[in-house]
Write a structure and sequence with these properties.
This protein is of the alpha/beta class. The protein has helices spanning about 1-45, 75-85, 105-110, 120-130, 150-155; strands spanning about 65-70, 90-95, 115, 135-140, 145-150. It has two domains: about 1-45; about 50-155, 3-Layer(aba) Sandwich (Glutaredoxin), CATH 3.40.30. The chain contains five helices and five strands, in the order αβαβαβαββα. The protein has a five-stranded mixed beta sheet. α2 packs parallel to α3 (about 105-110). The protein is rod-shaped and about 95 Å long. This is Thioredoxin domain-containing protein. Keywords: Membrane, Transmembrane, Transmembrane helix. It comes from Amycolatopsis xylanica.
Length: about 160
């Protein structure tokens, strides 16, 4: 009889352990599902910078504006092309990120463009409603005429309406 009681207690403890393990797995799966849903929502749509066309930009006096971020590999790839185009324009480069991470962008763009860095850059990104980096704008006065995510597309003439 003692063996039967011991076996029932052992099976009960084993079932309880497996039940706790199942709850832990379900909790972890739920967390992963929430993380995946957040990622899908974050990258679920393709950003079209053309939505910026016609908006007002709070900085005037520049006809070419580029928005860069320190953690953006494409920004570092597009920066030399922007610098080439900026030589022929009055350009503004808005560079977001920690100062130590943007030194290469600063060195490349400072000879050909005015720079906005740090908190001012973050405020300008928010004010213009930039949703992707890099973003390049052609500006007339304070009105955005053209917005693109590549310098090559921006260098093309603006289609007339």
């Amino acid at each position: 009889m003692t063996f039967l009681v011991a076996a029932v207690v052992f099976v009960g403890a084993l079932c309880l352990f497996e039940l706790l393990l199942t709850f832990a797995v379900l909790r972890r799966l739920r967390e992963q599902g929430e993380e995946l849903a957040a990622l899908k929502a974050k990258h679920g749509h393709r950003y079209d910078p053309a939505v910026l066309t016609g908006k007002e930009i709070p900085v005037t006096g520049h006809d070419l504006v580029g928005f860069f971020d320190s953690g953006c590999p494409t920004c570092h790839e597009e920066a030399p092309h922007f610098a080439e185009l900026a030589v022929h324009h009055t350009a503004l480069a808005v560079i977001s990120g920690a100062p130590k991470d943007v030194t290469d962008l600063i060195e490349l763009l400072s000879p050909v463009a005015s720079l906005v860095l740090g908190d001012e850059a973050s405020e300008l990104v928010t004010a213009v409603d930039i949703q992707a980096f890099p973003t390049f704008l052609r500006v007339s006065g304070s009105r955005i005429d053209q917005a693109q995510t590549s310098v090559a597309a921006l260098a093309e003439p603006v289609p007339s309406a």
